[in-house]
TrEMBL record:
Coiled coil: none annotated. GO terms for cellular component: membrane. It comes from Volvox reticuliferus. GO terms for molecular function: transmembrane transporter activity. This is Major facilitator superfamily (MFS) profile domain-containing protein.
Length: 630
């Protein structure tokens, strides 16, 4: 016999499993989702180290001249060495009066440029040199040095960053429906495996050595003085383009594994804890940044660093079997027995009584079977009793024994219904069968049209999209600019700006419910805007690093509640479509950021991107104030 009213998954989680729907089982699922987020952080920000501009590194020049008799190249190299407090590469004697040659301290005589020829041929910067005039000291440190992605070829490094975010944006759009159709755990497992394979291939011997690496190998084999190949050609040929395709694919798959891990972690949590669980799962992204610094120090080579990131992605496959599929998804797809098997796992790990038996009707409604929660039906027959009940297909004992081993049920008809939990809150409708994806797609399309037709909802939608776009540009802009626009150690600067994110998350977790999400996101956006503008007018040093830390703190804190803030702006019937568009706006910000940094003017205005990010943040803050007033 079943109850008269259908129930929701939240009712089961809160009434039967854990304290208000949270316990050790939910914590384990949250940790696995957090680990997936950590690997996503490794994948996303490894570009900071693997695509580091060798010319922007602190320390002495990372190159040397191919020909020691090339006076123009040697003079430029000596200037840079002296500027960093190092001895020049070649010691020159003063020329005798009227002489056009100068002797080196090793008594070798080379042509000494006169004043006219010196001014004519003296390069003003590294980019004035021909690729054949120099060789990288350690071309394996960065893909940019191995494939000569410097000077007029630097745009190719920015293109790698842009296409990764383009792939990430595509993955968010594709794998949402894939996870709805095929399950959260399956999506996570497949994407994690594919991500590990694609990432490993992008740094494998399948990618031939670039011209910078070949030139350095030739110089080492024949001696620097005998080599005339120099830095080789520019761009790297087919190896670069193959890496570009694989990097774009890894961005797409990275979005799939992050989405699968996040949804799997939060769907097992009751509504009371769901917001905190989502915030804590996202906070593992910061620990991924810390881990990336350690890996980059342990594996300085860009290929080895990439392979270590691939190894961490593959390790996520070892954690997936520890948790079952989302019971919410199983119920939506007409599999109540498997859903209860997942709920039994939650009950066993949480050390609570098992949930009641569930029945999914042909209409897709889920009911609790009355009389099936008796302890006598859970422990098997009492001593001395017949075991015939366990063989009766109509008995509760028989049905419970078949939970794990039963095959997948045929999905019921595609029918949707609304349910209300005990607290009077409207819960998510349960849609079963293949109609789930179609209903979601049709609902999003209809909701988006409705949101754009009405002026009020259109203003809210465009405002939330601009805010999330701006936060994304500022967040990724500060991170990606560390290697080129912020002076000092790349590893230390990256670590410090990552550490600045953690207080933002913790502060929000403690104060958001008190001050409200609108106030929290407004303060974070204002802080990011002011810090970025100040960073644009700072010449460098510890002050600029501190301002970058403050800017990233504001961005990360505001971004953490950004989607929740956007959800509060729209009614239930428009919420799903609006959130989808707002999330895509944030992905678009990541795509635009490398282009913004690439287009910065040289010289005194090279920090102009910081000013642009700051002004955008202040404009977003003004929009937030207007939204709040309305």
């Amino acid at each position: 016999m079943k109850d008269d009213q259908p129930i929701s998954v939240d009712d089961i989680l809160c009434s039967h499993l854990g304290w208000r729907g949270f316990g050790p089982a939910q914590a384990l699922a949250m940790l696995i989702g957090g680990f997936v987020y950590m690997t996503s952080s490794l994948l996303m920000f490894q570009m900071t180290f693997t695509y580091a501009d060798p010319l922007a590194m602190s320390g002495p020049p990372p190159w040397h001249c191919t020909n020691p008799t090339d006076s123009a190249c040697v003079s430029l190299l000596d200037q840079q060495l002296i500027g960093h407090g190092n001895q020049p590469s070649i010691g020159w004697e003063a020329a005798a009066p009227g002489s056009t040659t100068a002797g080196r301290l090793d008594s070798t005589v080379y042509p000494y440029p006169t004043k006219g020829t010196f001014e004519q041929h003296m390069p003003h910067s590294f980019c004035d040199l021909e690729p054949s005039q120099y060789v990288w000291n350690d071309p394996w440190l960065s893909l940019n040095s191995e494939y000569n992605l410097v000077c007029d070829q630097a745009w190719k490094a920015s293109l790698l960053d842009t296409l990764f975010f383009a792939g990430f944006m595509l993955g968010n759009g594709v794998f949402g429906s894939v996870a709805d159709r095929h399950g959260r755990r399956a999506t996570l497992a497949v994407c994690a495996a594919a991500t590990a394979i694609v990432t490993a291939l992008s740094a494998s011997p399948l990618l031939p050595p670039g011209p910078g690496a070949r030139a350095a190998a030739a110089a080492g084999a024949t001696g620097a003085g005998a080599s005339r190949s120099g830095g080789g050609g520019s761009g790297g040929g087919g190896g670069y383009w193959l890496h570009l395709v694989l990097r774009c694919m890894s961005g797409t798959l990275c979005a799939g594994q992050a989405l699968g891990g996040y949804v799997l972690a939060t769907e097992m949590v009751g509504p009371t804890w769901r917001g905190a669980a989502g915030l804590l799962t996202q906070s593992f992204f910061i620990f991924g940044e810390f881990l990336l610094v350690a890996l980059s120090l342990a594996f300085p080579s860009w290929r080895r660093l990439t392979l270590s990131v691939a190894a961490f992605c593959s390790s996520a496959l070892l954690l997936v079997p520890l948790v079952p599929e989302s019971p919410r998804w199983l119920l939506l797809h007409g599999k109540p027995d498997k859903a209860r098997a997942a709920l039994l796992w939650v009950a066993r790990v949480n050390r609570v009584h098992p949930p009641p038996l569930l029945e999914c009707t042909s209409c897709g409604e889920v009911y609790v079977m009355q009389g099936c929660n008796d302890p006598r039906n859970r422990g098997g027959p009492n001593p001395g009793e017949s075991n015939a009940a366990a063989d009766d297909p109509e008995s509760p004992a028989y049905r419970e024994a078949m939970l794990i081993s039963s095959p997948a049920e045929v999905p019921p008809a595609d029918v949707e219904y609304d349910s209300v939990n005990e607290g009077g809150e409207e819960t998510e409708p349960l849609v079963s069968g293949h109609g789930a994806a179609a209903a979601a797609s049709n609902g999003n399309a209809t909701g988006l049209r409705t949101a754009l037709v009405h002026p009020a909802t259109r203003r809210l939608l465009l405002s939330s999209c601009f805010v999330l776009f701006t936060l994304s540009v500022s967040y990724y802009g500060v991170t990606l600019a560390l290697g080129s626009l912020v002076e000092g150690s790349l590893h230390l600067n990256f670590f410090l700006t990552a550490a600045a994110e953690l207080p933002g998350y913790l502060l929000l977790a403690a104060t958001t419910d008190r001050i409200g999400r609108r106030t929290a996101i407004t303060c974070g956006t204002a802080l990011a805007g002011l810090a970025c503008i100040a960073c644009a007018f700072t010449s460098g040093g510890p002050m600029q690093v501190a301002l970058a830390m403050v800017g990233k703190l504001g961005c990360s804190g505001a971004w953490a509640v950004g989607l929740t803030f956007a959800a509060e702006l729209f009614p239930t019937c428009l919420r799903s479509a609006a959130l989808s568009v707002a999330s895509q706006s944030g992905d678009l910000g990541g795509l635009v950021t490398p282009i913004l940094l690439m287009l910065r003017p040289p010289g005194r205005f090279e920090r102009l991107p910081f000013a642009v990010m700051g002004l955008m943040s202040l404009a977003a803050m003004a929009l937030l104030a207007k939204v709040r007033a309305n």
